[in-house]
Write a structure and sequence with these properties.
single chain, mainly beta, seven-stranded mixed β-sheet
């Protein structure tokens, strides 16, 4: 069983930065593609970013492109999301997710059902 635990969320002013982390255990992290999603109050969960198992390929939602950067440290079994130039509309609970069947999906596939394992989420609040 894969366990994913997010951390690094908090309250930040607009224009500020945060770095989220997702610690993975219980599986073969280095073989999984990974993703970040977010869910704002009253809205459906949406795709934010993903990274291939090798770390070579990344993909971003248009709303965060140029501001957010996804990366991974497979030696540490950790996924990161560097968030810069934060906006109030970035306020949400952020989730990391793991896709163990990397051969079945393209690197740019944003669907939730691609990802089999999910963390509990970390709250990010951006004040104006």
């Amino acid at each position: 069983q894969v366990l994913l635990v997010e951390s690094g969320g908090g309250l930040v002013q607009a224009g500020g930065s945060l770095r989220l982390s997702c610690a993975a255990s219980g599986g073969s992290f280095s073989h999984y593609a990974m993703g970040w999603f977010r869910q704002a109050p009253g809205k459906e969960r949406e795709f934010v970013a993903s990274i291939s198992w090798s770390g070579v390929a990344t993909h971003y939602a248009d709303s965060v492109k140029g501001r957010f950067t996804v990366s991974r440290d497979s030696a540490m079994n950790t996924l990161y999301l560097q968030m810069n130039s934060l906006k109030p509309e970035d306020t949400a609970v952020y989730f990391c997710a793991a896709d163990p069947e990397t051969w079945a999906y393209s690197d740019s596939d944003e669907r939730e059902d691609r990802f089999d394992y999910w963390g509990q989420g970390t709250q990010v609040t951006v004040s104006s």
